[in-house]
Amino acid sequence: MRHHREGSSSPRSGADGAMFSLEQVRDIVTRTVEARERVLRQEYDRVLQQKLQEQWASFAKFNEDYVSRTLKSSDLSYLS
After folding, report:
1. pLDDT at residue 11, rounded to an integer
2. What's the pLDDT at 14?
3. What's the CA gap between 58 and 65, in Å, rounded?
4. Rounded (5°) CA angle 57-60-63
5. Is 53 exposed, middle or buried (0-12, 13-18, 19+ CB in 10 A)?
6. Distance separating alpha carbons of residues 39 and 32, to the nearest angstrom
7. At residue 72, does pLDDT exceed 60?
8. Across-strand partners of 19?
């Protein structure tokens, strides 16, 4: 992250209000984009973990059902 030079952190005043230097605008935009990216990454990671948990639960249920059906339909004559 860039650091401001002394005196460059305050906006210059113009007739129509506050004016920022190009460097100040770049710093503001960079910080804002980085902050938004962090929030989006956290949200993405949360949704991804949720979807992976759902997928694992679905797979585990399918596997359990498959094994159960296989055991019920198999020839268990060797137990006699």
Report:
1. 58
2. 59
3. 11
4. 150
5. exposed
6. 11
7. yes
8. 12
Global pTM reads 0.57
| Residue whose pair of structure tokens reads 């230097």 in the numeric block | 21
pLDDT at 9 over 70: no
d(CA 44, CA 36): 12
Q: Which residue has the tokens 């506050």?
A: 18
**Single-letter amino acid, residue 21:** S
**Beta carbons of 31 and 2 less than 8 angstroms apart:** no
At residue 6, the 3 state secondary structure works out as coil
Tell me the pLDDT tens digit for each residue of 45-61: 999 999 999 999 999 99
